[in-house]
Specification:
The complex is a heterodimer of chains A (530) and B (353).
Chain A (H helix, E strand, L loop, with lengths): L6 E12 L2 E12 L3 E6 L5 H8 L7 E6 L2 E2 L6 H5 L2 E4 L11 H5 L10 H14 L15 H14 L4 E5 L7 H16 L3 E5 L3 H7 L2 E6 L2 E7 L5 H9 L6 H27 L3 H7 E10 L6 E9 L3 E5 L6 H8 L7 E6 L2 E2 L5 H6 L2 E4 L3 H5 L6 H5 L4 H4 L8 H14 L16 H14 L4 E5 L7 H18 L2 E5 L11 E6 L2 E6 L6 H8 L9
Parallel strand pairs in A: 3-8, 3-9, 6-7, 7-8, 13-18, 13-19, 16-17, 17-18
Antiparallel strand pairs in A: 1-2, 1-4, 4-5, 9-10, 11-12, 11-14, 14-15, 19-20
Chain B lengths: L5 H6 L7 H19 L3 H14 L6 H26 L7 H16 L13 H25 L4 H18 L11 H8 L1 E2 L2 E2 H19 L1 H11 L1 H6 L4 H27 L13 H10 L11 H20 L4 H23 L8
Helix pairs in contact in B: 3-14, 4-9, 4-12, 4-13, 4-14, 5-6, 5-7, 5-12, 6-12, 8-12, 9-10, 10-12, 13-14, 13-15, 14-15
The chains are: A alpha/beta (530), B mainly alpha (353).
């Protein structure tokens, strides 16, 4: 399959610099018709730059891009560019108030629009590829998965022979992700080339015949996936010296809080001192919590988190996993039940009150809630503690913020050109570190983290999880880790599985069996649980 | 940003190990910031040259004192509007407050014979009333916009009409003269050659500038305007910050109105809305680099915007441009300045950047 015919897209010797940073150096890549090529690399490895170049948005400083043996159209000539390659970006490029057909033909409509022709052609494309979405539907009524299909249909409508998928599963539930794989296979079977960009190595192994690895702007590996192991890929992404150490550091970080927690947890009920003693160790107690939310409702959830304990909450996206995190953090309102932090009741929907009660919050969507992009690193990191840093007139000097932020950024190995660098300029993983640092800054007694490693590269992921585990161990803070990424749950002492807004089951003994967790999230009872 | 090499990763946090490069880039960055802040300087210099050539009177202390006095009132309103723009809001009704607040105060101060209300309030209490009127209008706007979740544009547009109507209604469209000296002091008096209004305006610019840079609430304004969701997630009381800024903005507009009333020794029904000052207020702020999208801007920029407009007006007056044409030229110059500010400052005023 890989040798069939000439390369559809051929990139040779690409160089790209932004100011003093070298984004890409001598990068070459070729994709053939019907091939699915995986592209992986840590955040900041140059993937986004390569995507921009392949999408015809950015011109390389040197090197060539060729389509079917011909030089690519000039940068900016999007119409001609899209005849060859079209990108489905990580962030949706759909106009919600327009219909499916209008979105499919967005930007490529003729001067006079024949609505019927546009709808018919949309239906034809949907039909050809077995997608089941009506052309007249308003896009605001579609699910995330369906919106992605519309974007793929848009690429196909323009006759693109190569489709570039940038982190396509980042916003999808597991089932939808699986259906996406079927669609990718369908595309490649139909002779379309697919460039598949992902942080999830399992996905690459599942659907890509070949994989290319970027590290520090260079293409360090291009090989068929069949001959590679997961570790080979990690080594290629991270560099030989890093790879073995990183996973183990997390493993040891997990070991300590788990064993350290066992002792008080076991003595409290054994000593039989009643509610007071048991209550002291409890940092979070959620009673019969209900909430309405478009992201999954809660219908009566109760759970507890003890000091130093990491409790995972998982389930499908619609099961209320993010909602419980948001409600506990005061970022969303509940409609019933109560949240107590260290025994004190916290009113719902008041983030500032929750923070003063000691609840740290690592939000789900860092772009939206995690940082102020044009403000500097130090200012963002200390945003939660201005009161502590300021004098009695509320005055605080930028220098104080820099000093206060330094230990946190060092601890999280945050890479920036300086404390004043706007966070918007940082790579995704470093932006997430800013969000985490901002949370750790105010010494929370409970940390609510919602999908804290989404869109973060492997090494940063382990560092972030390791730091959460470290904080739980060192400061005795409880952690409520709400995530549908099963690998996040490795650091948890317990995992609560939500199904349709209710506690379905609880796993109490790490390490957790991956398959059992998946089965539980689907709401299928198992004898092993409880 | 892209260089994720292990060596950088180890020390890149803050001004740690690779201190030279860290501090170096820190300085370059603040230089860039400084450059942006004085981005209008070449334009101002050019205008001063043009003015000097156009009129012999231009480059005199008394003329500059005049520009200062005329711009002071506008400047104080621009400070208020800039704060509101920085939290991502907008307030068209500042021109209404600018007219109504001094009108209410004057109406309570002057005798019935001079179309007053008859309370014969002391001028000092009158100033307290003026500030209270400003604060009340700002509070209503803030509550409607923040708590009532209404659109700021339409709320403040409606408020503008209401305020202008009240301004004419309470005095039956009369102009109030015979303001007591204490009431007019701020706008009319001078210390030596320096108008008091200019001194006060400069003090306000400096204090607000320092507040925005060194005070937690001041910094919170940037966070709230830059990304309200992130500010909220960081525990900032964004509603309180926003309402507070609407109140502060209106109080500043009321003080600007007091300066104007003192300068012309009267409060007319035209002051504010009738003169249409709000376009100049927005123009000065935006020319000065305050972003209409919120989160960006500073007082040095806002002040240069005000000075620029003041000088343009002054040159147009000195060169005896026909009154019929002065507005058209003024508007065209402002549009040109916006374009220039976009080029020099690099800050887009477009909806998306």
């Amino acid at each position: 399959m890989t040798s069939s015919g000439q390369a559809l897209v051929e990139v040779t010797g690409i160089e790209k610099r932004f100011g003093t940073t070298r984004a890409l150096h001598d990068v070459s890549l070729s994709i053939k018709a019907g091939q699915c090529l995986g592209l992986v690399g840590r955040n900041g490895a140059g993937k986004s730059t390569l995507v921009s170049i392949l999408s015809g948005l950015v011109e390389p400083d040197a090197g060539t891009v060729a389509f079917g043996g011909e030089p690519a159209p000039r940068v900016g000539d999007t119409a001609r560019w899209h005849e060859w390659i079209a990108t489905v970006f990580q962030h949706s490029m759909i106009v919600p108030d327009l219909s499916v057909a209008e979105n499919v033909f967005l930007g490529s409509t003729p001067g006079l629009i024949s609505w019927r022709a546009m709808r018919n052609r949309t239906s034809a494309i949907m039909g050809d590829w077995g997608f089941d979405i009506a052309a007249g539907t308003l896009c605001r009524d579609l699910s995330v998965e369906q919106l992605q299909i519309v974007e793929i249909a848009r690429a196909l409508a323009r006759g693109a022979k190569c489709v570039l998928l940038d982190e396509p599963t980042a916003t999808l539930e597991r089932d939808a992700g699986r259906r996406l794989f079927d669609r990718v296979r369908q595309l490649t079977a139909g002779g379309v080339a697919v460039l598949y960009i992902s942080h999830h190595l399992e996905e690459v192994f599942e659907i890509c015949q070949d994989v290319a690895v970027l590290r520090d702007g260079e293409m360090v590996l291009t090989a068929p996936t069949a001959g590679l192991s997961r570790d080979d890929l990690v080594v290629a992404m991270v560099g030989a010296s890093h790879a073995p150490a990183a996973p183990r550091s997390v493993a040891s970080a997990v070991g300590h809080p788990a064993s350290g927690q066992e002792a008080p947890g076991a003595t409290a009920p054994g000593a039989g001192q009643g509610d007071d003693a048991a209550g002291q160790g409890v940092v979070l107690s959620v009673e019969n919590l209900t909430a309405d939310s478009t992201r999954g409702r809660l219908s009566g959830v109760s759970l507890q988190v003890r000091a130093g304990e990491i409790v995972g909450v998982t389930g499908l996206l619609s099961a209320g996993v993010a909602t419980i995190g948001r409600v506990v953090a005061g970022a969303a309102e509940s409609s019933g039940g109560e949240v107590r932090v260290r025994g004190k009741r916290v009113p719902s929907g008041q983030r500032d009150v929750a923070q003063r009660a000691g609840v740290g919050y690592i939000p789900e969507d860092r772009h939206n809630e995690g940082f102020v992009s044009h403000l500097g690193v130090a200012e963002n990191v200390t945003m939660t503690i201005t009161k502590r840093l300021a004098d009695r007139f509320g005055l605080l000097s930028p220098a104080r913020r820099v000093t206060a932020a330094a230990p946190l950024t060092r601890r999280l190995a945050l890479v920036s050109s300086g404390p004043g660098q706007p966070v918007g300029e940082l790579s995704g993983g470093n932006q997430q570190k800013v969000t985490v640092a901002r949370t750790l800054a105010h010494d929370p007694s409970l940390i609510v983290a919602i999908t804290p490693t989404r869109g973060v590269d492997v090494a940063s992921k382990e560092l972030l999880l390791g730091s959460l585990a470290g904080v739980a161990r060192d400061t005795g803070a409880g952690v409520l880790l709400c995530s549908d990424e099963l690998s996040d749950l490795d650091i948890c002492d317990r995992v609560v599985v939500l199904v349709r807004g209710e506690v379905f089951t609880e796993f109490t003994e790490p390490p957790f069996d991956r398959d059992a967790l998946i089965v539980a999230t689907e709401g299928i009872a198992q004898e092993a649980a409880e | 940003m892209i260089s994720n090499s292990p060596t950088v990763a180890d020390g890149g946090a803050g001004a740690a190990p690779p201190a030279a490069s860290g501090i170096g880039s820190w300085f370059t960055r603040s230089n860039v910031g400084l450059l942006r802040e004085v981005a209008l300087l070449p334009v101002l210099i050019l205008l001063i040259v043009v003015g000097t050539v156009a009129s012999p009177v231009f480059l005199t202390l008394s003329n500059f004192a005049g520009i200062g006095q005329q711009s002071a009132a506008l400047g104080v309103v621009v400070v208020g509007e800039s704060l509101i723009l920085m939290i991502g809001g907008m307030d068209l009704s500042l021109e209404g407050t600018y007219g109504l607040a001094p009108m209410v105060a004057a109406w309570l101060i002057v005798p019935i014979a001079a179309y007053g209300e008859g309370t014969d309030l002391s001028p000092y209490l009158g100033i307290v009333v003026l500030i209270a009127v400003g604060a009340a209008i700002g509070l209503i706007n803030g509550l409607l916009i923040v708590k009532g979740r209404l659109n700021g544009f339409i709320v403040t547009l409606g408020m503008t009409i209401v305020l202008a109507g009240l301004q004419n209604g309470i005095v039956k469209a009369q102009t109030l003269f015979n303001l007591p000296p204490a009431f007019g002091y701020l706008g009319a008096a001078s210390i030596g050659q320096l108008p008091v209004s200019l001194i006060v305006a400069v003090i306000i610019f400096v204090l607000v500038g320092l507040f925005l840079r060194y005070q937690r609430t001041g910094r919170a304004i940037y966070a709230v305007g830059g990304n309200p969701a992130a500010a909220r997630a960081a525990g900032i009381k964004i509603d309180r910050v926003k309402i507070g800024v609407y109140v502060a903005g209106s109080v500043l507009a009321a003080i600007g109105g007091l300066m104007e009333a003192g300068r012309v020794s009267a409060v007319t029904g035209q002051q504010g809305y009738g003169e249409g000052i709000i376009f100049n207020v927005f123009a000065a702020a935006v020319i000065g680099g305050v972003s209409l999208k919120g989160g960006r801007g500073n007082m040095i920029g806002a002040a240069s915007g005000v000075i620029l407009l003041g000088i343009v007006q002054n040159i147009l007056t000195l060169t005896n441009v026909s009154n019929y044409w002065i507005e058209a030229i003024d508007g065209a110059v402002i549009l040109f300045a916006l374009f220039l500010a976009r080029i020099v400052g690099g800050e887009s005023t477009a909806e998306t950047s």
